[in-house]
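Thread: DUF2631 domain-containing protein, structure

OP (GT): Posting the sequence first so everyone is looking at the same thing. Length is 66 residues per the record. Can we get the structure tokens written out before standup tomorrow? I want them in the notebook alongside the other entries.
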Amino acid sequence: METSRSRTAGGPVVTTLLWLVFLAGAAANSIGQFAGLDATYRYLGGGIAVACLVLLLVRFLARRKD
């Protein structure tokens, strides 16, 4: 019998890392203009934040399904 932790690879460590990368990407996107970042880097940070958010949502739904 599989548990929900064994089905979501990495468990809480991966979830924590995804949250940290999400926050860093969102911060780069939102305050990048004031910090003088080029638009390319801000868009890249926003894209990374969106990708992390999607992965967090998929992980949440996979755990919730059990």
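GT: Both are above now. Quick notes for whoever picks this up: The helical segments are 4-7, 12-35, 39-65. The chain has one domain: 4-65.
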